[in-house]
Amino acid sequence: QVQLVESGGGLVQAGGSLRLSCTASGYIFRIHTMGWYRQAPGKQRELVTSITGGNNTNYVDSVKGRFTISMDNAKNMVYLQMDSLKPEDTAVYYCNADITDYRNIRNLYRGQGTQVTVSS
Q: What is the CA radius of gyration of the chain?
């Protein structure tokens, strides 16, 4: 089985920074893509950013220039560096991953989420 575990959320003032981490563990054969979703109270979940095994990245317009995603393939980890945080970035952030396991079964996985709160 594959599990994703996030860490690094917390409370920060507007303009501050946080770094989220996510570790994928289990019988992983290949990680195709990893990324971060977020969901704010009363809002739909949105894809914030993603990165492929070849380091191709995508960002939602609202975080471009402020957030940076990176992946450590050797450790099966993905990071989200969040700078110049705004109150509207407040949400639960979920790590997600598109993974093929050693049974050659490909699935999408999601972590339990980590709260990010930005105070004004």
A: 14
Does residue 106 contact residue 73 with C-beta atoms inside 8 Å?
no
Tokens of 108: 């999408």
Contact between 2 and 28 (Cβ < 8 Å): yes
- Could you give phi then psi for residue 40, rounded to 5 degrees? -95, 155
| Residue 50 confidence (pLDDT) | 98
Instruction: List the beta bridge partners of residue 73.
Output: none
C-beta of residue 19 within 8 angstroms of C-beta of residue 82: yes
77-110 pLDDT, tens per residue?
999 999 999 999 999 999 999 999 999 999 999 9
Amino acid (1-letter code) at residue 28: I
Q: Which pair of structure tokens corresponds to residue 92?
A: 């639960």
**What SS3 class is residue 85?**
coil
